[in-house]
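Here is an idea for our session: we take a single protein and study its fold together. Start from the sequence, derive the backbone structure tokens from it, and show both lines together. Once you have written the record down, we can walk along the chain together:
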Amino acid sequence: MREASSLSYFYPVVHFDRSVTGAEGAVFSKSVETPHVRAEPFKELRLESPTRSLLMEAPKGIQILAEAGDIQAICRNELRLESKDGEISLDARRIRLMRLPEGKASTSSSSSGTRQTVYEVCVCPNGRLFLSQAGTGSTCQISNNVCL
């Protein structure tokens, strides 16, 4: 492996056991396999693919843990959580579903006078969620415009 101090970009062998540093980090032309990736103490670790995708694979699972902070997943389009054979669990004291669309209340379930502030969360056949004003019975309508 070439010395990192003299190069801003370098290309090590796929398997290595030495520290890799550089002014802009390290850039690899091929895939990298290593049992451990760690940032220097009090430094941020960043894995990035500026023009393609970033893939993490492991036959026995991948764990993301932040013992003293938050975990954020941010994307431009769709964020998908998928379990082929199991389940997806959301375990928290509070789960917030922000900016859900509100379905049109049917004439039989709309309240006369003041608008209700209680809603029920409804699920379309395609899995899309929406809010509907709560009534004495369910106010979810499958023919709702949100499900189209």
User: Anything to note?
Assistant: The beta strands are 119-123, 129-133.
